[in-house]
Amino acid sequence: MCYRLAFLLSLLFCFGSVSRTSEILTSTSSLESAPVSPQVTTPVVPPRATSWAEVSTVSRPFSNFTGSVDSHGTCQCSVSLPDTTFPADRVERLEFTAHNLSQKFEKEFSKVKEYVKLISVYEKKLRNLTVRVEVMEKDSISYTELDFALIKLEVNEMHKLVIQLRENFVGSTDVIEKLEVEIRNMTLLVEKLETLDQNNVLSIRRQILALKNKLKECEASKSELVPATPPPPAPGSCSHGGVVNISAPAVVQLNWLGFNYKYGAWGREYSPQHPERTLYWVAPLNSDARALEAYRLYNSLDNLLIYSHARDYRIRYGQGGGTVAYNNNLYVNWYNGRNIAKINLTTNEVTVNRPLPMAAYNNRFSYANVNWQDIDFDVDEQALWVIYATEASTGNIVISKLNDTSLEVLDTWVTKQYKPSVSNVFVVCGVLYATRTLNTKTEEIFYYYDTNTGKEGYLAIPMRKMQERIQSINYHPIDQKLYVYNDGYLLNYNLVFSREPRQPASMLV
């Protein structure tokens, strides 16, 4: 607006000058009838002295002119006038430039307001950080290793810069941006005080606090009205209602041949005549996941843990991971057939070798994800069992109780559960439990068949695992654990039993 007002005033001034110049010229022309001497070289004096003074002042550019009188007595004058064209285009450009400058000024001024607000925020933040440092210094634990003096010095310096900039802001935005970067760096420095703690005092305190919180959570969970885990039944007893839960896995050891031997079996030998005996056996298969040519015995779990005082044996004719040890004998599926064999653990001699009637073999009905386990031996509190399938059962699981001396079949039950859909099985108190794979970290005990009643049904007991595939499961009646061979690792689980007779979730018809 200021530029526009100046422009109008200049126009009025110019127009006034032009009008006065025109008046002078008109007055001069009116004197044409008066006689003029040719020798006159001075300007014609106008009637009013005051008007002539004004003309001489304003029209100074017109002082240079020539005049003459023609033959008719007419006065003729030649006046040299300057270029009187008004520079409208320049004025327009000037107005446009002034408008742009006004917009830029308003934009920069708005940025300044925003920066002032940000500076106030950062000032408060710095004050809070200073308070935090002071509180930490006053704590009961000494933090002499932390350089608090340096931190407070930097915070105070930044605080002074913020105040000075807010009060005397005259610089460009670059200064504010640099200040913002400094404040951000200061914030990160204070938040990372732990890196200055050479003794890791802060880290240890946080770990201790986390442990205390976990202990409080455990105490709180105990006080809640949650059914406590029922006490285990007496070793070797079946006075319970069946398996209702299972513990997390405990990794005992990697098999002695190494990680590449992912298939096999292991467990604790069970003898009803000597239930206290702690003879552990490990039988990894060859790298082809089929042939069983060697096994190892340990007299205690401690020896197994450190691979000490082991007895190694070679047999060269076993197949699959369905092996079990019972009454000082090892029971295996004979290689490339349906025969089953008994091997004395003291002499390593085969004492019995006979066919299992109608049993399918050589991967006809093996477990899911596990080959060459068409025939699987199991032991419980009552007897020696063999799990298999036949063509007559159309691949469904067949359970047979064996005479552990002669390997004759004493009794048989045919289930409605398809064997290749099961990942593995175990037997507790005459009840077969089957597992299946849920994902790479979880199995599920999902099916049972009770040979005592002939009933079968479904369960839903999750079972964690360390590796992807489970190759074998064996149960020991005395310690009531499951011994699991999991991709070369030796695991065991504690079983949890119900006090009351089992109420199945559903029954198969």
Describe the SSE topology:
Layout: H1 2-29, H2 49-58, E1 65-69, E2 75-79, H3 88-137, H4 148-167, H5 173-191, H6 201-223, E3 243-246, E4 250-254, E5 264-268, E6 280-284, E7 291-298, H7 301-305, E8 311-326, E9 329-334, E10 339-344, E11 350-355, E12 376-379, E13 384-389, E14 396-402, E15 409-418, E16 424-428, E17 431-439, E18 442-450, E19 455-464, E20 472-476, E21 481-486, E22 489-497, E23 506-507
Antiparallel strand pairs: 1-2, 3-22, 4-22, 5-6, 6-7, 7-8, 8-9, 9-10, 10-11, 12-13, 13-14, 14-15, 16-17, 17-18, 18-19, 19-23, 20-21, 21-22
Helix pairs in contact: 3-4, 3-5, 4-5
**Uncertain spans, ≥5 residues at pLDDT below 50?**
1-6, 12-62, 140-148
Can you write the helix and strand succession as a string? HHEEHHHHEEEEEHEEEEEEEEEEEEEEEE
Shape: elongated
* CATH top level label of the largest domain: Mainly Beta
Q: How many strands, what sense, and barrel or not for the largest sheet?
A: 7 strands, antiparallel
How far apart are the first and last residues' alpha carbons, in Å? 97 Å
Count of the domains: 2
By secondary-structure content and strand pairing, the structural class works out as alpha+beta
